[in-house]
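Handout, section 4.2: multi-component inputs.
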Amino acid sequence: MEPEFSAAAHELVDWIANYIRTVDQYPVRARTAPGDIARAMAAHAPANGEPLEVILRDAREKLLPGITHWQHPGFLGYFGITASTPGILAEMLAAALNVNGMIWATSPAATELEQVVMRWLAEVLGIGDAWFGQITDTASTSTLLALAAARDADPSIDARGRGLAGRADLPALRVYCSEFAHSSVDKAVMTLGIGHQNLVKIPVDQRFRLRPDALASAIAADRAAGYRPIAIVATVGTTSVASIDPVNAIADIAEREKLWLHVDASYAGAAAIAPEFRWVLDGVMRVDSLVVNPHKWMAVPVGCSALWVRHAESLRRAFTLVPEYLRTSAGDVLDYHDVGFQLGRPFRALKLWMVMRAYGVNGLAGIIRKHCALAKQFAAWVRAGDGWEASAPVELSLVCFRYAPKGMSPAEADAANTRILETVNKGGHALLSHTKLNDRVVLRLAIGNFRTEEQHIHTAWADLQAAARGET
Amino acid sequence: MEPEFSAAAHELVDWIANYIRTVDQYPVRARTAPGDIARAMAAHAPANGEPLEVILRDAREKLLPGITHWQHPGFLGYFGITASTPGILAEMLAAALNVNGMIWATSPAATELEQVVMRWLAEVLGIGDAWFGQITDTASTSTLLALAAARDADPSIDARGRGLAGRADLPALRVYCSEFAHSSVDKAVMTLGIGHQNLVKIPVDQRFRLRPDALASAIAADRAAGYRPIAIVATVGTTSVASIDPVNAIADIAEREKLWLHVDASYAGAAAIAPEFRWVLDGVMRVDSLVVNPHKWMAVPVGCSALWVRHAESLRRAFTLVPEYLRTSAGDVLDYHDVGFQLGRPFRALKLWMVMRAYGVNGLAGIIRKHCALAKQFAAWVRAGDGWEASAPVELSLVCFRYAPKGMSPAEADAANTRILETVNKGGHALLSHTKLNDRVVLRLAIGNFRTEEQHIHTAWADLQAAARGET
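Output:
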């Protein structure tokens, strides 16, 4: 009855091995037009089962053209990610075991390995051991959980129990972050009923870092106006520009004002694995919660987001609820469903454990170091390039830059950069993305894939220059 | 630098093939004591990389004892799930491609295949095509999204923008569900700032179904008391007892009261694949949102939760927010991040597509049919058993039952059933779970694993009887 596994799986392993080896021969960005893939699919589910070989062939022939190859070493947009070999193996094993680690008893190994690797990772990042860690699917979820804990930290608020509406005792709550914070912070306050209008975006300095003085003023003004500040989000490595908010100065304010301080280090936190970049997490020992995404710069397949809070209790206060059917006689154990809103929990610790072991701390640090050096190299080319300029300091592995030759108006340069980006991405050797800095279009080259080498950023640079010259 | 994939992967495929074949030889429930697995792990991440073979050997030798084998055909607790062979293959391929389908452009195939399979599934379930579908990680997330849409359906509430606190114009919001609804509903109202006290639990009838008359009264009383009712959650297949709320009668009330109606059919919805069970979704054509979990009764590996709403717009109203760095020139395409709070999106559609094709509609229906027949069979044994009783009607593949011989007080019977459960689960052939019905301890035997056959429930029944007789 069940389709036979071995033959198809061995064939797929060979295909995957070849894919990893040859992924640089695909165009990075999918070239299909909207609707092409949908039209290539059958209109209805089949009445009867089809052979695995046929399905896998369809995946290769009909779906692959619609894949943007995040594994291509020329993928330099957003933040790069890597399906490392230990990561793929871990996902294979996790899929076969297919456990749901919702409570300790439904797989002690899932719960305990998660605790172990979260301790490993905290140690490797140099943030100490006074944390409670868990792995979620995305930084969006991690930040949502952290801000839920922040919201419910003050028992007089009791959003969890009483809700926020219809209460004469409760003014509007306020959360603070820089104008460069990630959209997941906006979505968290929207989801939690705090409201987007109550997320106060603090201006940044010339290096795109949250300005503590402006933060302090905003909090003071809000208190005077009758709002209830509850939390601050600092970003270590903003999405647009990888700027690093001054966590220590922000922590001074958070401590004085008794506000929860959450640090979003989804991308840049991993840099702290390399001792010379440990400074990116300066001050994090003082904060209440921290998110770092191993599925970004640590070669763990999506999704694997590491969330730490000081005490499990802060998350339990917001989320604990144990229905009868989940009670067990296992005694004093950690049931992870109790510290979040998602009951189902795939065995995500496995891939983090396998990747950390397969690369080792030195292996991971070496790649991060290499990526940062490549970014410096690329930025040097840009600065030396005719008509090109770096648009922001290169803190880590992200370069923000722009084509703006003399005599071109800022608006003309915006249009030129938009055109250059599209030309390069269409070309297929590299994929870059963009953002806006000081209201001007800026290109982003982000190095994060473990297979990216100098040749790939060199090709990207050649393509960028050709596009600027009007070649396609 | 990167660990070589092929040799380790082929070896792992052989191990997985053998695991699937022989999983019934493991004890279902892990026998490790709290802390055993953690102690078996290294205290620190290794400085240098280790060979994949060593890591995989450790996984087999040190982690496997801490695995509760959800793939064991004797896994009859909670709701059973299956790592089917097409499901495992899909996870292998998804891990290797490792795309993030946050927007259409970052892999058109991920977005378009998701739209295609969600249409397939809606058709197969017989719920029509007037839906917008998406796949999330868990039913918890799906229900959270649905209730966020419900909360923001009335523009005068604008929880998303203005938040719920500090508003003189806004009374407490209210949501309604049966006292047998899943804890994910509780967690959703807690998370969304609606508040747990504002989730009104409606009493059930003798078949554990939400009582529409009690619902209507509760809504009327709340309106009279100044609350603002916003949504009702009906459950098709409750976790404790698989009871099926009368969706049509509830939809009458929702329409009259202009309330959002969400249906949680996470477990039981899949039954509608078999024509004779299509009645479980009666009335669903009238509701606003619906969740069915293919990772439960459809042999798709965790996590794969299917959420439908009438219009993408209802989710966009709650969640849309497009930062500059996610804007593309792709034109009029669906960017899935825009209809939820999670930015990261693994390629989950792949496994649903591969499983539906590999089994076909008839294959899936056949297994659901078999599971329901096995449940009837087991219930017949229980009813004929000396001192045993069925505790609820068997609607689908879940049997609730209890050992309560004449002369035993209810409290004594509770203790006996708790002991029987622990004895059976310790035995290793089967894993059952429990719940409480009418305040009495009741055992749950839930059939959902595609590899479960009559022999496995027969063994479970033999073990239960032996445990009741005091044998261990």
